[in-house]
Amino acid sequence: MSKTLKRYKINKKNIKSTTMDLISLFGIPEIYTDYAVYFKNINDDFPQVYLNLNPISNGFRFIGGKSMLSKNNKKLKLNSKDVFSFIKSLPEIGYNTFTAGESFVSKWLNKEGNITIYENSLIGDFITVSFFENSFIEKLAPILDCLEEIVSISTLVNSEVVATEKNIITTSGSLSSELINILHLNSIPIKNKVTSIHSIYSSKSNDYSEIEKYLENKFSLDLVQNQFTNNFNFKIEDVVSVIIPSFNSENTITKVLDSIESQNLSLDEKKLIEVVVVDDGSKLSVLEKLKNIDKYSFSLKISTSGHNQGLAKSRNIGMGIITGFITIFIDSDILLPKNYIKEHYLRHKFIPNALIMSFKENINESNISDKDINEGLMPSKHPNDSRLFKKLGVGSSGIYANTQDQEINILEETNYFKNFGYGRVIGNYDLSTMVIGHNLSIRTYLLRKIGRFNTDFKGWGLEDSFFGAECIVNNMWIIPVLVSNVYHLNHPPRSGSEEQKKAEFEYNLNIYKGLINKEI
After folding, report:
1. pLDDT more than 70, % of the chain
2. 209-516, what's its fold?
């Protein structure tokens, strides 16, 4: 059965109320920036080519015109590697000019149909509704009846975009710099250009301000510093996966699992939590330590390895087991505050292309009792995470050489990472090093897109930073959340000593530099 597509103009002053009406019907929308490029043919009988690029998918369709091509108004998907060649070929068939713009999108996905609001697009503010059955559009009648239906999108395109047309190919024979910038922003590879992971993420912004503005304007929410659970009564409706690599963690693993059990969730919500513990060759196995795994309300799966294979491999084993909408990675010495899972979950419902992380407070086991954990921990208000504040001496270890004694506060200096894009370095840190595996969350389909944690890294350090670099290259925002800071239980280095830990870091640093600068 094919879908029907309708479009409606919407007045900007009504967008907020319409958004709230749609949320009451269909829940939280996905929000993201959408890039639209219209290519015009010198022959008016030929349709315009509309190229659509966003974090979800790339595709094009034909709009208007009188040729046979015009009859295909379906969106045709493009692989990222084919977009550049597709654009370069257009002038050969008479498409010489283009107009480009971006809009902010709110999208509700539903089995019966989809609703999308486009704000500040090239052709104004409008809503699209695609549906299978008329019953879906009838459900929306109270919202749509007061809007003007757009009968012909091609009329709007012709009238609105013609004034800003530019040449696809410059006088020097190169692709327009504006088009190249749009391709970069959407991680579209430029053919014949030698590149590396480092060069790509050095071209990426991490300015998620548009998402912040949306949440502030629509719901009076601060993305980084507000508890969403205070404003939204939405329940967890999807499976949430938690992967915990564990090596010789017999003193902490039960406390970690108890902190998950004490999440501020209903019993039905807890039943949607799927925890996978990957026992990486511990002397005392997790199964031996846990006397009664049936006591937990969530699903607990334990995978046991005969010998120690390292964090990256353990996380990859967990990835082969999970089934969730989002995946949370935590270490076997991390205690979650009772709001952690839901705060991260709600943000991922809004944002389809984000890696979300919180900070940690290092504590001794004696500072928190089992009773505190079982009653549910409040988020740490005093994180002492090195990503918040650190004194650096000349030559201190890191991805980059530190050439002076300095004190850095990365959150303040980067405005909560928003100004930490384009390969910026502060001390010996860049944006990728903000990704640390002791606690982070990501949509599982994005995890599958990257594929795995790189197992070339051995021992302590940098496998998570390289994963962070891959996330940045794949158009993900790196977003800190301060309302769900965790607790890290102090313990001796599992590498055996601080000297061994440092040696492992130096080994992994060479691996990191080789991978990050390798031509791709």
Report:
1. 92
2. Spore Coat Polysaccharide Biosynthesis Protein SpsA; Chain A (3.90.550)
